[in-house]
Task: structure prediction
Amino acid sequence: MKRILAIIALVVWALGRCYGADTLYVSCSQTVHLQFPMALRYVDLGNRVLVAKVVEGSKDFLAVKAREPFDFCTSISALETGGKMHTMVVAYKEKPSKLFWKFEDKPAVDSARASVVSTGETLSGTGIGAGAGQKAVFSSILREPKRLYHLGTKDYGIRVEIDDIQIRKDVLYLVLAIHNNSGMSYEFAMPRFTIESRRRGRRGLDFEKSPFPKAYSGVGPVGPGESRRMVFSFDKFTPVRGQVFKVYLYEDGGGSRNFKVVAGWKDF
Result:
């Protein structure tokens, strides 16, 4: 009798772990989106009944669906670029009650972005002041004339361009310019930077590097009829042949005025 009770207790415990409050439920008809604090480096699907895809332009978003109904528990493991691993228990449910998961993992974000400093107007700086030498370098770069004329995009009366890319003492500086000829102010979240393969493979999960700026200057809203030049500094990198460097701008507040500027390896 005791043995039977022990087995029942073990089954109940296992079911509780599998179908607990933190279980990620997926279905064939609805997509579940997961948002992580940082861009993803690696994702492992516990079973082929799952299919997942990183949302293009937002490397911290993962879209998950089921290929077919299943009656067992599996898992998803996701590794962030900062080294934090997330593992979720996954089960099937025809109509999941929760279609959006956001992982609030502040320590992982802070540890990876602790070195980001701002100089001048910012949207999302850390508040850490940059040294006088770095401010002088940023001011010098922003005073220099435009050197690149073929890297840009425009829409909604707004033109976004990469004005310059240069390397000084193993530090890469990128100058981004926004010209707002529309009748509305353009407010945007902090730009996203990624190094991606020019051709994406057939597999849904294709991960590239997401460099974070060490420091930046001049970031802020652009009013109607105004222009703004911003400079970002990175640890030196160079995309190899077959890779491109992309800058993504998303309008703050969920607006539709979003932009993508692409630079090839020959531009570095």
Observations:
- Confidence is low (pLDDT under 50) at residues 7-17, 105-115, 120-130, 202-206.
